[in-house]
Each structure stands twice: as structure tokens, then as C-alpha cells.
Design goal:
250 residues; Immunoglobulin-like; alpha+beta; 3 domains
Length: 250
């Protein structure tokens, strides 16, 4: 029987009409890889990792399935649909998976490129008010990516950057909310800033200056006005006092 099982999988030319499909999963998740093309009559069907490492083999004549070291206990095979399920995925499971039907006609009937990714980190959205009235700089940071944008009153520039690994950092506006979004194909996290906070900053800055170029604060003007008023009041009191003394003297 062992000799028969070995002969079934004698290497031969394989016909592949399948285009690989990209699949993304989080670390610890599971993935089911289904057959993509019609399966011809076969003596055996194998799932192979990176074209060299056997995951499992199924022998149709004896209805037997063999799992290989490294996959025992964490893969499932459906003997009716020939689909493969990988469980508790790790980043080392990223790569190319192929289903090969071997018999009178040898054919690749499924091909998947699996990417196992960590969840993204939570981004950080910060803001800084410039010296110009209502000009606010926003900075969105996520892992090793960073983008900046400028806002004037309620108008903000939207920005986005994507790394070669498919990680995206974006700064956008949705209604009255500014959103810093950090994402990859399987996860995303956000940090938000309400537009009313920027409006308050703009209002505070407007109260703090006469105009963008004047540079004279309302507090300073109030101090001057108070000083002038106090001086006039003191002068009036002194004048009345002097008049009373002059009246008494006369």
C-alpha cells in the first residue's frame, strides 16, 4: 500500500488555469480555501504551501487523508468539496497555497496568496494653532507613518498615504468630525477630533486679537481703558476736593 501511495504522486507536468486570489487574515484567525476550478478525476489531491511544502494529501481510492508535520491538528479537509481550512494562523503562514489534482490529467485547481497580518496600532491625532487667526495644523500619526494637514476655520485639507505593505494612514472630514484612520486590509483604528473644538480655538484666537496682523490683544486694550478710566475718576475726585477746600477758605 505504501508503494501505491508513493506512485500516485509521481511528479509530472501540471496544468494551471487558475489565477491566484489574494486573501488577508488577522493573526489567530482561520481561513477556508475552496477549490476554484472543476476537479478532474484524480488519484490524489494535495494542498501545497509555497510550491514545496506539503500541507496534506488526500487519496481518492482509499479515502485517506494525510496531514504533514507542522499542520497536524490545525487544518481541516472537506472530502466532498476538497476545501482546506487553516486554523490559528500565524505570520509564518503567509504565502502561496495550491491545490493540485494528480491523475490521468494533472491540474492546479486552486491557488491562493495568503497574507497574515497583525492588527494596526491606534493612531494619534494632534492639533496646533499657528499665530495666524484660525489657521490650525493637524498631524495624524500611526506606527511609522505621519501626515499633516491645515485647517482654516471649518475647512480642512484631506490627506492619505499608503506604505508598500498595504498600511494606510488617512486624514479626512466626515460631517462635523475630523478622522485620523490607520488601517491595513484586515483591521483599522481611528482617532477623532470634533470640528466644534477647532471653532472654539478659532473664536478664542479671534477674541485675542483685533486682526491677524494687528497683534494687539483685547486684554491689553482693556487694561489701557481701565487705566484711563481710573485716572479720570481720580482726577475728578481731586478736583472736587480742591474746590471744596477753596470754598471753605473763602
Amino acid at each position: 500500500m505504501a508503494l501505491l501511495l508513493q506512485l500516485i504522486f509521481v511528479p509530472s507536468t501540471l496544468i494551471s488555469i487558475t489565477e491566484s486570489s489574494d486573501v488577508f487574515r488577522l493573526v489567530g484567525d482561520s481561513v477556508q480555501l475552496d477549490i476554484q476550478d472543476p476537479v478532474p478525476e484524480f488519484d490524489g489531491l494535495s494542498w501545497v504551501f509555497n510550491r514545496s511544502e506539503n500541507v496534506l494529501k488526500h487519496y481518492s481510492e482509499v479515502k485517506k487523508t494525510k496531514q504533514y508535520p507542522g499542520y497536524e491538528g490545525r487544518v481541516e479537509f472537506n472530502e466532498e468539496t476538497y476545501s482546506l481550512t487553516l486554523k490559528n494562523l500565524q505570520k509564518t503562514d503567509s504565502g502561496l497555497y495550491e491545490a493540485k489534482a494528480v491523475g490521468a490529467q494533472n491540474r492546479v485547481v486552486a491557488e491562493y496568496r495568503v497574507s497574515v497580518l497583525d492588527p494596526v496600532e491606534a493612531p494619534v491625532l494632534t492639533h496646533q494653532l499657528s499665530r495666524d487667526t484660525c489657521n490650525i495644523t493637524l498631524t495624524c500619526r500611526g506606527h511609522d507613518l505621519s501626515i499633516s494637514s491645515s485647517c482654516y476655520k471649518e475647512t480642512c485639507e484631506e490627506e492619505e498615504v499608503t506604505s508598500p505593505g498595504g498600511v494606510t494612514l488617512s486624514l479626512s472630514v466626515s460631517g462635523s468630525t475630523i478622522i485620523c484612520n490607520h488601517s491595513n486590509p484586515v483591521s483599522w483604528k481611528t482617532d477623532v477630533l470634533e470640528m466644534r473644538k477647532l471653532k472654539r480655538l478659532c473664536a478664542d484666537e479671534g477674541e485675542g486679537s483685533v486682526s491677524p496682523s494687528a497683534g494687539v490683544s483685547v486684554c491689553f486694550l482693556k487694561t489701557v481703558l481701565y487705566s484711563i478710566t481710573l485716572t479720570l475718576m481720580l482726577s475728578a475726585v481731586i478736583t472736587v476736593h480742591i474746590r471744596e477746600r477753596l470754598t471753605k477758605s473763602s
